[in-house]
Protein: FAD-dependent urate hydroxylase
Organism: Acinetobacter pollinis
Amino acid sequence: MKIVIIGAGIAGLTAGIALKKFGYNVIIYEQVKEIRPVGAAISLWPNGVKCLNYLGLKEKVAALGGQMDHLSYVDGIHGDVMTAFSLMPLIQDSGQRPYPVSRAELQRMLMDEFGHENIHLGTKVIALEEHKNSVHFTFEDGRKDSADLLIGADGTHSMTRRYVLGEQVSRRYAGYVNWNGLVKASEEIAPQYQWTTYVADGKRVSLMPVSDGRFYFFFDVPLPVGLENNKQTYRSDLEDYFEGWCPQVQRLIQNIDVEKTNRVEIHDIEPFLKFYKGHVVLIGDAAHSTTPDIGQGGCQAMEDAIYLARALQVNSLGIVDALSRYQSKRNERAKEMVLRARKRCDITHMKDSDITQAWYSELRKEKGENIMKGILSNIIGNVLD
């Protein structure tokens, strides 16, 4: 069976690795000429890490991951700790450490594992159609190809989603802008082995340890969509948005490299349950584009990839039957993750000030059990439980 994957992001590469291990002939087409991951880093919670462990990448992903032993929320204005606790109960319950990792390093590792010779960059698919039991597609330069199965891992602006659903769905602005990047870890900013989040006024500043003594950082600010995006003003913009915040946040702003900092307007897409049509199937953001507020976007993409590969391998009633089983296993879980992230987004970013202030008050009483219970509820139910 020849399988073509559209998109060389985390979803497409994970699916490609899994399918190759099962003996399939897999080719990946990616429209960009140079891979530049969107975002500086990614939170791999135990369900995502287990997917990579399953593919034989346990040591490699562990080498990329930061050691995150504790979690803490801090008052962004006054700098006092609202709650802090060990993550060891969560690690023990789930059977795996979470790993914040550099997105570029993760993607490079996945590309190396899949094999660069079967990744074709600068090849944009502009049209596709099905003939009997094969999918035929056309590239922007006029070339054509075909496959027994086409996997759409082409992200939030997916062309294959339009084919599967029969319409182009609109993205929904979540109401906030995110600046993110990597910075040298410093105890003057946050404890090195802790996920630290400063909160106040519906804004958020978060730091997570990644490998090689670095923090992944991000700033969230509720803002109108469509404001000017100018790297030269990133530092001054953040100084304005976080004026009066505690010294740790001010040090972080001064320490960032604005040229290597990303600015993203956060969107999601209304969940839908149709993940395939004929011999075309969706995975990752193409199937369930979400906000990053519960850290499950990449993890759910990996779950998609593993379950799809297993469905194709273990079932013998044909491609469509396997795709139907994949859809019924994944669509409700993915929908729930999108909606949970949306709910967390609204609480965190003060869509309703009373609800957000109540959350801040709850954080000061939190001992860790409720937060870890919430994280575990996202992890449980994955394909490798």
Q: What stands out?
A: The domain at 2-171+268-379 is CATH 3.50.50.60 (FAD/NAD(P)-binding domain). The radius of gyration is 21 Å. The chain has a mean pLDDT of 95. The longest strand covers residues 171-184.
